Structure prediction request, 292 residues.
Amino acid sequence: MTASLTESVVAPGTGSAPNPGESRHRRVTAGNVATGIGVALVATALLAPSVLAPRDPSAVDLDHTLAPPSLHNWFGTDEIGRDLYTRVVHGARDSLAIGAGAAAVAFLLALVLASAAALAPGPVARATDRVIDVLFAFPTLLLALLTVSVLGPSTSTLVVAVGVGCAPGYARMIRAQMLRARGSGYVEAATALGHSRSAVVRRHIVPNSLRPLVAVFALSIGQCIVWASSLAFLGLGVAPPSPEWGALLDAGRSYLTRAPWLVVIPGLFIVALALVTTAVGRSLQHRLERGE
Prediction:
């Protein structure tokens, strides 16, 4: 009697209970497929943009200026007749390079600040900790704007500015990881075995502090792309005629009412690339958590 009641409650129509692990596996598989497709498209745009867009991104056609999207020009044309689809595809390399470069600058600065805050002698550590807190209080975009105003607008300045803006947040994360690693058993064992402080830091604290942040680095690339595009939209990014997506936004804002596709389409691709890098970062994070 009890068994029959249990069967009817658990599986009224099938005779078996749903498997939560199976549904989770389906979600993970779908996420991996979506990530794989996105990564494949991004890789093609980076390594062989001519495969996706064989036209010349700088080719001018004054007879078809500000043409709306059509079968001939999938994303329309800009103010001097250049094909927007071709420029978007060829601009992916510049946008991702700026995002990855800015993320690298951010993590290098963060590593220096976090090392001083977590591993330096008391007064230096406290002073560095206060510097990190003060910088963290400023919005990312404001720090980037201040850096650009000091160094002047250019592509290299854009990379450095976005990196400086993002560094304080990453410094706090790395500092927390270093403090946790410094108090761990393997560091105490290495110290007890007579290893020098520099060797302990180099071989144990730094590697074990940065390993969990590999996924964060991938996530930060998308964030840096968005910040770089924001600066470019303000006229502080890559100069024309580069097809970098932020530069496309800056060039298209003058025609927002007449040709909104010049802003909407690059903006959508910026969001899409940020989502792809975020998906890759989360996938790396799940793998690290599982110990793969």
